[in-house]
Amino acid sequence: MSELKDPLDLAETGDLSKFSKLEATLVHTEVERRPNSISQDGVSRHALTADLGVNELDFDFNLATDHYPLDHLRSLQQVFDAVQYRQHLARDGDFSSTTRVECFKADPQGGEWQTLDETNMDQLLQSYAINASSPVKPHPGRKMLVFFTPLVPTDGTTYGSRVLMTQRNAKHLFETLHVNPLFLLNMIGRPDYWAPQMHWETADDGRLLACDLFCQHPRWNLQVQGAPLSVYVRHDIVRDLTTYIISHKEFDTSITALKSILNIALNVTSTVKNPAVFLDGPFDIHAILSTLSFEASKFHVKRFQRFMWKQMNKVDDHLTGLEFSDRAKLGDLTKQLQIMSSNADSHIANADVAIITAKAIRDAHSRLTPSLPRSNPFINQRADGSISYIISSIEKQKIWFLNYKQRKDNAMSLVYNLVTQQDAINNIQIAHSMKQDSTSMNAIAALTMIFLPGTFAGTVVGAGVFGGAIKETES
Prior knowledge:
The protein is of the alpha+beta class. It has 13 helices and eight strands.
């Protein structure tokens, strides 16, 4: 009767004896499940007491129909948006006691700047409100509003900054212009690189009512941190109104440049009476900010390149023998290469953020503009071309940064080899010195062994030990 074989013998090898020693060890070793995998109630030995009862979703879900945007709910997904909106709107510290907001307003009669306090902002928003009982479009014709909401660093706030707008004005702004409630998090300075978000609002019969998009632009200056640049746009087809809300740190260079661009256009159009330059493209300001972000990146990219080539030249000097490869200099060079690697990683991440943002703008633009009543494919192509140029340029910039990082890796490997060679040379020198010391010690030991017996005998004889013994015998 043939012996019953273990099922493992029928594995791909066909014979357990054909397993390698390592494989055989794994086959015959019983693998036990972790206790917490069995009971599902295990606690990490590194857990803190507070970790045991943490509530990751600590929100107030006690909402009613009068909470925005539940008063005109159209999607189940809007419910949690309303929960988050209410949670952050209730935090008084994230808002200022007064309102100080700049607003650029454009309509068929032209454009103008307004500096809004709490009262002025209420009046402006009220003039653009739509009465539910009589949905008549205020201010007929195309319109645009651009709100610049600065962020001031403040302790004790949710994201380290407070917006220069009162809590009441913020609530009035969102509810009057039907701003996406999730943008409130970004308006008060949410700092992480969240993905662009797009929302389409339709009527019960499927007609498109509005489209909005909000995103965050990358921060290329790695030496100075601050509140992020977050941009929201909503194009309301019913009101024929494009609304921008731009949350930014004070004295942001991109915002300063954007305001200058708007001023130049305002001065020109006031002469030729052509306000269409502000109103033809709902995504023009998004495209301009992407362009400004790319232009700002060039300064920091060039700064990185100068730093990189300085370190690369040092590596070449060590390699060609122009620089003495001592350990201290190589250690400092290793540190500089590590800094270069960290900066390259940050710029690659910035490039990815810029690409994702620009692609979202292009996607929203290409989907919305054909649905507009006065859509012109040639006018629309201007914004599409600008965004496509930014995407291609940033992708090329990323290729160069990946190349720089590879060069850094090669240089780091070379420096490591130089350090290893230097250590090997030092070890050889130490071994040679120890060998010389050992030879000298051997010579001293040999001489000691040669002269020690004679020295000992002379010492004993000189001490008269044997002489005393002879005199006693003679007597």
